[in-house]
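Re: [ENG-882] Designed sequences occasionally contain unexpected residues at chain ends

Forwarding the minimal case from QA. Structure tokens:
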């Protein structure tokens, strides 16, 4: 790399280096800051939530709560801790039934994550899905509001989901952790 003036090659290289936040540092610096999440050490501003997105999350929250009762904790739009560099905020999570008042859930607690995508489909099916697979989260649903379809990802192996199904309106989804429970997602 050729540089001019007082900036030598070391300075130019340092400017291109990204800084990765750890969980503790992120929580200290961004506590109380709304609409941000930590993904693979980088802070991302979350997309604004429109009415269709909000309604979809509220509806799924109600459907899961009614169908599962106390068999799972329904965790809407709250963070999940994925050490050492991630704290995503999925739109909905089904967690193992226990108290999370003393610490955020980790991948071992997660039965299912749901992302609702109106403007964030590429992000949700790219970086976030990869992060969830690497963490070993057994199942992720991505609700594509624009195309009105549900992507069901299961069976993470070597950092990717080996099973991907697309459900169309009228088809019901069945969480892997709860055989026989059918969710009319559309």
């Amino acid at each position: 790399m050729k540089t001019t003036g007082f900036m030598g090659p070391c300075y130019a290289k340092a400017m291109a280096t990204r800084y990765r936040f750890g969980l503790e540092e992120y929580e200290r610096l961004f506590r109380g800051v709304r609409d941000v999440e930590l993904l693979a050490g980088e802070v991302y501003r979350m997309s604004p939530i429109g009415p269709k997105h909000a309604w979809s999350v509220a509806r799924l929250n109600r459907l899961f709560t009614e169908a599962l009762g106390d068999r799972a904790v329904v965790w809407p739009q709250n963070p999940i801790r994925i050490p050492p560099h991630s704290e995503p905020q999925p739109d909905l999570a089904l967690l193992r039934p226990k108290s999370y008042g003393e610490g955020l859930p980790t991948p071992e607690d997660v039965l299912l994550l749901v992302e609702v995508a109106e403007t964030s489909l590429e992000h949700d099916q790219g970086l976030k899905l990869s992060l969830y697979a690497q963490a070993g989260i057994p199942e992720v649903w991505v609700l594509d509001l624009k195309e009105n379809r549900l992507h069901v990802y299961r069976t993470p192996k070597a950092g990717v989901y080996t099973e991907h199904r697309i459900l169309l309106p009228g088809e019901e989804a069945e969480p892997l952790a709860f055989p026989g429970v059918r969710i009319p997602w559309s």
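QA comment: On inspection the terminal residues look reasonable. Residues 107 and 137 are 6 Å apart (CA to CA). Proposing we downgrade this to a documentation issue.
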